Amino acid sequence: MSATNLAVEQLQRVLLPRRGEPADVRSLYLLEAEINKERLEWNDRFSVSIPAGAEVSFQTYFNAFPASYWRRWSQLDSVVLKLNVSGEVRVDLYRSKIDGARIGIEGAVVKDGTIEFEVSLAPFEDGGWIWFDVTAESDAKLEEAGWWAPVAPQAQVMPDGTEVGPFEARATVGIPTFNRPADAVAALEALASDSAVDAVIDTIIMPDQGNKHPADEPGYKAAVEHFGDRFFEFRQGNLGGSGGYSRIMFEALGGVDGEGEAGAAKSPYILYMDDDIAIEPDSVLRALQVARYAKSPILVGGQMLNLQERSHLHSMGEVVGRHDFMWTSAPHVHYDHDFSKHPLHDRGKFGDKPDAPNSRDLHRRIDVDFNGWWMCMIPRVVAEQIGQPLPLFIKWDDAEYGLRAGQAGFPTATWPGIAIWHMAWSDKDDAIDWQAYFHLRNRLVVAAIHHEGSVNGIVRSMQKATFKHLLCLEYSTVAIQNEAMKDFLAGPDHLFDILESSLPRVAAIRKTYPDAVVLPSATEVPKAVGAPGVPTKDIGGRLAPIKKAVWLAKGLKHSLSKENSEFHEVPQANFAPIEARWFSLSRVDGATVTTADGRGVVYRKRDRDKAKELAKEAIALQKQVAERFDDLRRAYRNAHSELVSREAWGKVFDEQ
Does residue 275 carry a catalytic annotation? Predict the structure, then answer.
């Protein structure tokens, strides 16, 4: 502890919730003790009044300091907690171990002044956070608090051993948008709302790829006037996320010749953000400081919180499985963690099963292969060296960029406390709707470029998926996945050619299948007659594998029999998404299934001949993928440098 000026540069401001936030969202910022007789009060995001006798803990997602990440990736050996207090309080500083166990560091009473604590990062090799609790000895006010670096950032080491930087805290922010004008304007307003964030923004680049333009939205004019000559909008055809983000990088780097007006600031960092998000603005500053203090240039990823359940964290980080080349949660990550029910101090109970919900694993450092582009900061030196995103439209472009960066010696870290709120994947049908084409085609393209070893695991996972889709009467999904394999097998030379045309082609295919046609309600078709004996609930327990084997046998027997076309006019059942499983759909000839967002239904109709035709085509294509994968691997790798070049993308943008 010291009252001297140890703090040199702020890394992370201590934040208060916005006024009026519900209790579950407040738990991301502070935890008021249950014994408190009065609630804490605040009028801004940075200072809070604490009644005498009240206690508050900042062991929370946005205010604890993720020490293990700074220990692993940064130049720092220590961090400084700096607080400015009026009144008299006791401050207690703690850290955690990899299993969430709490360790006291030190404490002190402070009255009407500023206090600093310097904490070593040495004990955080594998995990752990640092946080502080405050007890008010009198009516008091925490005027300001934050985590600081005791030194300025130094030069960073490139993979070849040369040094770059240190870099200034400046960024170009890129927000591609497609028919979300209100969301796009809200994102601009959020960035402008915080003066400290506004001060580090060199440029904002917004590719507009839709026919509903932010420029027509209330608030757009004021937002653009606020940013003035720092704002650039580029209207272009629908090139998907990869086309939008590639345009951002292309313009931030000044175009083909490096002299483009939108890149004149030559920002040292490029920040990617989705348009349909809500952002905690301090995340921009935190990402910048992580990037500036890193030992070597690093891609800094923001984590995703659930926009509809805002105390829920989607995931701490993701990797690509090397056996089947499918993205998945990193080891020790728990999907959809609810901080309001399981705050960081929740270590569970003695004797809990390994999968019991608690927060122990949130104290681990999670290492990742890539980060989603809902929020990701890319150093300019990385973009200049490894190139543009692949022309994949959507899906896998962010994963491929992270894998490519990693192979070039530039890691990715998905950083706790740097976050946005985004719609959860559970509210989308993207595994079976039009996006299924891009999921598979792009997975194969990226695997050809980055996967080492046998393709057998990938092919087996495709075979399993095809079988499951057919059992679930998802014929449109199998049809467009077959189209995805055809486009992969056609090689890399046509990827730019089909960048805009793939989506309309896939949409046209899907229109011919009833399982892809969304109806407003199940009341649009006759009342379901019932499907007695068909299971609708999953089961667990010791006997579950035996019961499911029986279900599978019955489902296969039914699927191989001739369908009853009467149920193509009158459904047997109306299934909610949670009931629309292989063991239910494989036993019916016609049923409505509610979409994931609950806004409509599709009518799935069993057609044995169509299923047989799709299965036969899928098997043949999967065989071709297996047989030709090594040749295609060479072809895609040879074409890669051209596919990610500014020159190739420049030609695409010139045609827009």
Answer: no
